[in-house]
Design brief:
By secondary structure, the chain is an alpha/beta fold. It has seven helices and 37 strands.
Length: 551
Amino acid sequence: MQGVTLKLDESGTHLSVHISPLELSGKIDINLVQNAIKQSEFADFYIHDDAILTLLENIQRAIKTESSEAVIERVGERKGNEIKCKVDDGQLSATMTIIKGYGAATLTLDDLYRQAKNHKIVRGVSSKRLAALLQSYLAALAGESVSSIIAKGLPPKTGRSSKLQPLVQNALDRILRPQASQHGRVDMRNLGDIICVKVGTELLRRLPPSRGRAGYTVTGETITPKAGEWLKLRPGDGTAISEKDENILIAEISGMPKFKDQKMWVDDTYICKGVNVGTGNVNYDGAVLVNGDITEKMEVYATGDVTVNGFVESAIIHAGGDIIITEGAMGKVNDAGTEYSTTLRAKGSIHIQHGQGLDIKCDGGVTIGRQLAFSKVVCRKEMVVGPIDKPNGNLFACSIFSQNRVQAGTFGAVSGSNLTLDFSDGFNTLLARKDSLDELVRQIRQNCSRHEDRMKIIRSKFIPEDLQGKVNAAQELFENEHQLMQWLEQKALELAANKENYQQQIVVSANKRIYPGVVIKLNNRTWRAEREYGKANISFHGHQWQCDAGA
């Protein structure tokens, strides 16, 4: 624009506008000055609008007085980029903030690295994060601020606590993992020796805790980890801490060892060569080991495990632990299928090599070595028919009431005999608990809401000093009620999650085939095998049973 000149000072920082009144060809206003700056090489400078207004006032005055002297006003300046780095209190992360300058030189990636190093941020710096921050800076307008975490330290990892390592296996574990023969093949008849430990046998070792993993800060300092804790070694019944090694638990009595829920104990064990009319029934406070058969109409009751190294026929066995039958079990069933001559009850799990005509009920899982037929099974955990690593056994003509996965090689028989697998009991128990808890939550929530309204009214009033104590007590009761409501709501959410998990874990897995006559139930949701299937998985999804053949 004629008569208007833009000039930098000697430092190259400040911008001035020089206007010669005599050379102006027309009227001048703030828009003309601003456009002149925007179209010049100084468009990125920081411009002071109030300085331009002052300039215009001075030029108007010069025109009125017909002055020939140039009017000069400093209207802008160059502002450099501003970079700030902040390290958090724990020194585990660092944030870089860039305020883009006006007319400043463009920053490079090396500039950002240099700034980080100047702020002693030397470890955990992310090149990707810095590059992304640089791109954000380049896309920003002058005066805008961009920020990002550019470095992260590594928090120390606390060492794991000491672990308890069993030195002897539970009887059931030895049964389910047959020993290999001398010829390198697994002999299914060699199920390992079911032995009782002797006094002084080492049962459990306490492994030392780990030291943990060191961490580091973004400033390069090492963070020392906290070592794991030593778990207290608590001797169970029939065990004691070794005098030679405080980390070893030894048997104090001869008997059958048991490790469960991080606790080792030794059951006083009654050992006999069989249970028959000659020996009489067995009722023992401890474990029972029968190295022989249990014959017809005999009864065995034990508070611990019951292990039978033989055959069971039309007998009753009740165990406070596991029931293990290394051979088979057989019983008779009435025509209505309601009465069984062989009854097995366990608070733990039950293992049988093969069975027929059995009434089985346990709180744990059920494993069948080869085949189960014409029986009733009620269990809470998984049921496996065949080797645990590859279930290929046969299951037919049974009523199974399970709360978990059921695996076998073949379900049903060619004859089309009925096999029912019902998963309703566990689901209905969960539903009943959920409904009761939901109703309780509803009532507590209503009470809590009503009490909250009353507390608001009370707090809005003037409280005499002699009543302040009672108000505080009421407030404390209300807070306790609110905490109870939150705890119940959390439990309700957990039950809802358990309900979903239950539906996901009830699966029937056939590794060989499924014959017609197999029925799978979850309340009124039923799946029937109307034809023969090969290898398949039957699972419950979307409120219905689905068959994944060939899975």
